[in-house]
Amino acid sequence: MVNIDNLTxxxxxxxxxxxxxxxxxxxxxxxxIGPSGSGKSTLLSHLYLLxxxxxxxxxxxxxxxxxxxTYHNVYMGALSRHHWSYNLINLxxxxxxxxxxxxxxxxxxxxxxxxxKVLSKLSGGQRQRVALxxxxxxxxxxxxGDEPFSALDPLMAEQLLTMVLAGHSxxxxxxxxxxxxxxxxxxxxxxxxxxxxxxxxxxxxxxxVIDNFYSPEILPLVSNA
Length: 225
Ligand SMILES: Nc1ncnc2c1ncn2[C@@H]1O[C@H](COP(=O)(O)OP(=O)(O)OP(=O)(O)O)[C@@H](O)[C@H]1O
Description:
7 helices; nucleotide-binding; 7-stranded mixed sheet; ABC_transporter-like_ATP-bd; alpha/beta; binds adenosine-5'-triphosphate; ATP hydrolysis activity
């Protein structure tokens, strides 16, 4: 589905991704782990650029509009599916079908706030679920997520992760969680200082592999993929 060969990315003179090669097949559930600043967001943004036509991206920056309602922020996920005139009328006076769809989706995410509530009045965890709902409302085959559950309690994070994995054939998700959530994925990629240092399948995942990956030593690539 996507092939990256010897990719290097930098911001001004800061190297963020170093000579990274990677293939991800359609249908894979891939977790990306790594310390803060290791390049996860940079890699995910690049993958989204490559897969834009078929992927929804739930980024850390969220890109929500504070002055708009919960409904309108989620509905933005469907803008490209409708004619501009439909979107315009719906912005002024929401149609009943998308309103009911968005409400049901929010309910699935335990986001039981009035659809008219403006974003600026929501908590951090609620905002994160609005961003997640907007990505899910895109109804794409691939989900790319940059720590999309980081502001949620562990139980809710696990429930929503399960829902996202079940709803998309391919998932590529950067996670805070080092161990528990990883058992839901087929394959785990680990970045350190912009380099791919871990690329293993679920059956090879052990606490020792994870501990070694996070140890201060510089390690060669560990891979069975
Ligand atoms: N806009 C930017 N301008 C300059 N440097 C940047 C910018 N964004 C990221 N970086 C740098 O690039 C490197 C990779 O950052 P990136 O955000 O991809 O890491 P990350 O693993 O996603 O971090 P975190 O877990 O904290 O979100 C870091 O050294 C970071 O400081």
